[in-house]
Design a protein that fits this description.
4-stranded antiparallel β-sheet, 4% helix, Methylamine Dehydrogenase, Chain H, mainly beta, globular
């Protein structure tokens, strides 16, 4: 897969109430450490109401930021992995169910189920700079760097929205007869695949 390595974690409400406003960041390179056990390396206190669901995590390798989608209160948390501190809690991403980091653009695309929109966050200003209306339940995504496109699965809308990251516009919506799953970019074949 082209681009930075990604780590996606979904935590249940029960797990979140156990950790109470804290996210236990476990960063493991499982592929390079076969047979190794997971170890807690940090506890990071996060803003927002306790017991509300977190969804996707991804890493900005250049800045060493952990980007965390806090679905319940609609917050994108930017965490400095060098200090294990929250750099910024970015509001205005209601029902954030997913995110995609585009390194060369220094942007995060958020998938905001609460308003059926794709949010665009500029990491320089750490603000939501644009919102794009999309089909029902934007969720999973993949970034195809050679094409400068983010492909966003709209699970209940039975569609994939194609976002041009240079223009920050939806340039195409591909409709399907059934719900869409997580799209994936195959860098060898130079194709995006939709999974159910």
């Amino acid at each position: 897969m082209a681009g930075p390595d990604r780590l996606w974690v979904a935590l249940s409400d029960a797990a979140m109430s156990t950790v109470r406003r804290s996210l236990i960041a476990i960063l493991v390179l499982a592929a390079s450490l076969p047979g190794q056990t997971l170890q807690q390396i940090a506890t990071i206190d996060l803003p927002g109401p306790k017991g509300q669901r977190f969804d996707y995590l991804t890493i900005d390798d250049e800045d060493q930021f952990l980007l965390s989608a806090h679905l319940g209160p609609g917050i994108l948390c930017v965490i400095d992995m060098k200090t294990n501190k929250v750099v910024k809690a970015i509001p205005g991403v209601p029902g954030i169910t997913g995110l995609e980091f585009v390194p060369e653009a220094r942007k995060v695309y958020t998938f905001d189920w609460g308003e059926e929109k794709i949010g665009i966050v500029d990491l320089h200003s750490m603000t939501v700079v644009k919102r794009l209306a999309t089909s029902a339940k934007p969720n999973g995504s993949t970034y195809a760097a050679p094409f400068h496109k983010v492909y966003v699965s709209n699970t209940l809308g039975k569609a994939v929205a194609v976002v041009d990251v240079d223009k920050d516009e939806i340039v195409k919506t591909i409709e399907f007869p059934s719900e869409t799953g997580m799209p994936q970019y195959d860098s060898s074949a130079r194709k995006v695949q939709k999974h159910k």
